[in-house]
Design brief:
Helix content is about 40%, strand content about 25%. By secondary structure, it is α/β, with parallel strands linked by helices. Helix 2 packs antiparallel against helix 5, helix 4 packs antiparallel against helix 6 and helix 7 packs across helix 8. The chain binds adenosine-5'-diphosphate (ADP), aspartic acid and magnesium ion (MG).
Length: about 450
């Protein structure tokens, strides 16, 4: 069985939902994971922020406006009067719940419950639409099987067991619709897999059922060789290895949630990226096959903080780095890049929630300098470190101040740290000289 995931734009309008219906209605049994309609999760986050800031009126206004938008979409989508009413009743229950939330005290638990509503809305509406169109589908509630553990990792054994139980209650369905993104945490409370998490839901289910393939359907024809939001003339890449895709996703290629390939790579389950608006385009196939050497794609990750830790004691002292790492470990803060010299070590983090505490502890053993608003530019491909183009990098970026370089950590990745204000120029220059064959 295949798992197909459709993102926010793919379910964001009646026309696109009709495209999705045509793509999935091919007579094959499948699991279909849906995101919230585009814009909904952002709006729910904004409502939640209003509640956190005691802006109850602002929250209520947004809830009412969103409620109306949903009603007008339902009127276009569901011409069957019974289904139209049934879905409006369900949707109103959700919006009434959101109004109740607006008067409650803010907590993380409340926020998680608010942002979970987007996927509940889209899946209920879409499943009803399939029923109207005479398609044999059923709705599998993700909260019955999707769960993360205390480390926020998917609890695969639990998911496997409970997915099986849930799907078996709907044995004769052809299409199983379920919510992306949402899950329970280790206390059984509503939680989520972080923004963009529906991709991750799809591969977690793919691994749990040993799917033949996972397909991520979105609004672009596969992984491009650079970020199309900032760079002109980007092109789709037809094949990527799991390693290459994992690096790109982790280092900012928004088309994939950072963890997307993790659940499926061990079982060698291919992941195909496809365009809902142009289904005949090849897209990108992610598999264990590695193709030609060299720089294949570039991605960038923003909101990076660089920390320089300088200490005379580092000189010939073993155990210094251990102490440094232990401090980051205490605050569960992952380090992305690291470079060292004789007297200093520079490293980067993207989660600065505990930065002040970390700096306080580092201050006891070293002198600390912090640079905020940094971006990691990541060059990815097979054997990039040995490739002839690699030596051109310094020349291409001669006008850009490169703060750190990570080379040789893996054969698939070279990372550069630049000030975020230099990001777009750097991406465009790298694109022109590496992929557009402009000569230096
Ligand atoms: P969905 O809602 O379907 O999950 P996303 O917005 O999360 O879609 O991801 C698709 C978007 O990712 C594209 O529209 C594109 O702007 C952006 N993107 C960023 N980097 C890349 C890349 N390297 N290749 C393709 N798309 C990218
Ligand atoms: N709806 C969620 C978000 O906007 C999850 C997803 O779209 O993948 O982040
Ligand atoms: Mg996404």
């Amino acid at each position: 069985m295949k798992v197909l995931k459709f993102g926010g734009t793919s379910v964001g309008s009646v026309e696109n939902m009709s495209n999705v219906k045509n793509i999935i209605n091919d007579g094959e049994k499948k699991v279909v994971v849906l995101s919230a309609m585009s814009g909904t999760t952002n709006m729910l986050v904004s409502i939640s922020n209003d509640i956190a800031g005691h802006e109850v009126d602002g929250a209520i206004e947004k809830i009412k406006a969103l409620h109306e938008t949903y009603f007008s979409t339902i009127d276009k989508l569901l011409t069957n009067a019974n289904l139209n009413k049934k879905v409006k009743d369900y949707v109103s229950e959700i919006f009434n719940f959101l109004v109740e939330c607006a008067y409650k005290d803010f907590s993380e638990h409340l926020e998680n419950n608010i942002v979970a509503q987007g996927e509940l809305l889209s899946t209920y509406m879409f499943n009803s639409y399939l029923q109207q169109e005479g398609i044999n589908s059923s709705l599998l509630p993700a909260l019955k099987f999707m769960r993360i553990d205390a480390e926020k990792e998917p609890d695969i054994d639990y998911i496997k067991r409970n997915f099986e139980v849930t799907i078996n209650t709907f044995e004769d369905s052809e299409i199983y619709i379920t919510q992306g993104f949402i899950c329970l945490d280790d206390d059984g409370e509503v939680s989520n897999l972080q923004r963009g998490g529906s991709d991750y839901t799809a591969t977690i289910i793919g691994a749990a059922i040993k799917a033949d393939e996972v397909q991520i359907w979105t609004d672009i024809d596969g992984m491009h060789n650079n970020d199309p939001r900032y760079v002109e003339n980007t092109k789709p890449i037809s094949n990527l290895s799991f390693d290459e895709a994992a690096e790109l996703a982790y280092f900012g290629a928004k088309i994939l949630h950072p963890q997307t390939v993790t659940p499926v790579r061990a079982d060698n389950i291919p992941v195909r990226l496809k365009n809902t608006m142009n289904p005949s385009a090849h897209g990108t196939l992610i598999s264990s096959v590695t193709s030609e050497n060299g720089i294949k794609a570039i991605a960038a990750k923003d909101n990076i903080t660089a920390i320089k830790i300088k200490s005379a004691r580092m000189l010939q002292a073993h155990g210094f780095l251990k102490k440094v790492f232990e401090i980051f470990e205490t605050y569960k803060t992952p380090i992305d890049m690291i470079t060292t010299s004789e007297v200093a070590v520079s490293l980067t983090i993207d989660d600065d929630k505990h930065l002040s505490k970390i700096v306080e502890e580092l201050d006891q053993i070293a002198t600390i300098e912090i640079d905020k608003n940094q971006s990691i530019i990541c060059l990815v491909g097979h054997s990039v470190v040995n490739h002839q183009d690699t030596c051109k990098l310094f020349q291409i970026l001669q006008d850009v101040k490169i703060r750190m370089i990570s080379y040789g950590g893996s054969k698939n990745n070279i990372s550069l740290l630049v000030d975020t204000k230099d990001k777009v120029t750097s991406l465009q220059k790298l694109n022109d000289y590496l992929f557009e064959l402009v000569t230096l």
